Amino acid sequence: MLGGAAPGTFTRLDCRDEGAFDAYYAPLRDMLRRYRFDGVDLDVEEDMSLGGVIRLIDRLKADFGARSILTMAPVATALQGKRHLSGFDYEAVEVLRGPSIEFYNVQFYNSWGRVLGDDGGGSGGYGEIVARGWRPEKVVAGVLTNPRNGHGWLGTEEVGRSLRMLKRLYPAFGGVMGWEYFNAVMGEEGMGWQWAEGMREAMEVFETID
Prior knowledge:
Distance between the termini: 39 Å
Order of helices and strands: EHEHEHEHEHEEEH
Mean pLDDT: 92
Shape: globular
Strand order of the largest sheet: 1-2-3
């Protein structure tokens, strides 16, 4: 992941001068190459221009090829046409560079929305995103894996119920993303693999939904 709550990450990559851009982009490119990353998640949590993010996407794809995995991590409101953190319009990014973005790890926590409505139905934040025309297979539901990781943590049972509901409503929906892996709570804290396995099992189990 690149960015997050790290001010300056994207403002430095959003400069008009190509020489300045290259000075900040080159270390990122070299690190990804050195450690043989399959791709990178762009978590833009500061103002960035549409032209700036398009240039970054294009350079990453040019340097790492069409098979490299490029994702983005917007807060939920960014795909609902509301106020958000990134500055640019994600719908415009999808129109202009949709094929280059594998999926969107949407943050449904820290006061940016709930996956489902208060009644547990599909009228919540995820449904609102789909209603705006986003394809469910590209929208990953991002949740907290530990109450210490932010606001809006849901227990694993509640997350499981939400995932089963999403699977019913949108059979090809993008799945779930957890923030963060290293301290995920599922049985014992720090067993991220158990959390991931629990989420996989939740999406494979179909329950009767009244």
